[in-house]
Specification:
328 residues, Rossmann fold, 6-stranded mixed sheet, two-stranded antiparallel ribbon, 10 helices, 12 strands
Length: 328
Amino acid sequence: MSALTPPPAIARIVAHIRRHLPEPPSSASSPRPPLFVAIQGPQGSGKTFLTKHVAAALAAGSTEHVSLRIAALSIDDLYLSHDDLTALADARPTNKLLQGRGQPGTHDVRVGLRTLQALKFINSPGAPSSVKIPFFDKSLFGGEGDRVPETEWITVERPLDVVLFEGWCVGFCPQSRDEIERRMGETPIGLDGFFDISQYTLGDVLEVNELLVDYIDCWNLFDLFVQIVPAETSPYVHIYKWRLQQEHVMKARNGGRGMSDEQVKAFVDRYIPGYHFFGSGILQGGTDPLSGEKIVPPWLRPDNRHGAGRLLRVTIGEGRELLNTVTQ
């Protein structure tokens, strides 16, 4: 689908955001925090494309609505530096899930939380009037990627009305050990004979499960959630095709720098356990494996200041066409 023909899902997402946006927008005389919107979807599903066009639609305004001031960022830009990713892999040589970027634990949560908190309070009197957004270049080091120097980060200025934060594992929650053990005995739907979950040990998954706890402080900043999901009959099988297409497009644009097709397959294999073990946290929350306390993200809480219906699920087909949307 061409960039000149935005997917129908954009109008649904924009309407979802505007429905929960206070009027009038924040101003110097009446500042309020920007509305924080999480956008989650599997690799190659078009979430970055959708986020870009949602941001443009909100910023352009319409005859019914004023234009809004938007900041957009991706969890992909919060990956650890290449040196730190290498050090992490070396420190945990037996954990296949941590041999390269991808799973929770391979992001710089400290930088991510600091950036998100700065954006949350950017409209407040006395707060810094600008925030620098990190950038991770996936084409570097043969597709392993690296964070670019801070001098190359993007700067956003206040005031802001909406912050869009997209990523494949945004909203994932840690689970109890019993639940992890139960899912270890299941093959992800549609991947029989294509993906072997036994290549990862219980210890591998439990280690990532504990690392995921650190992400909850970031999730707690969000007011609304948009989840892009494949049809329930094939929630994982299209991810390999989509991610391979994504890599080919990037390499065509940058002169061929990136992963081979075989590397893309191995790369996506390392992500599948994240969806399988932790993705249910978006709809059901989770359990802190260290304290045993229940985790309820803000878009599921009945006392959220933005009211009911804060989670929008956008179901897409193999060609990324819109199938339906549901608010809950």
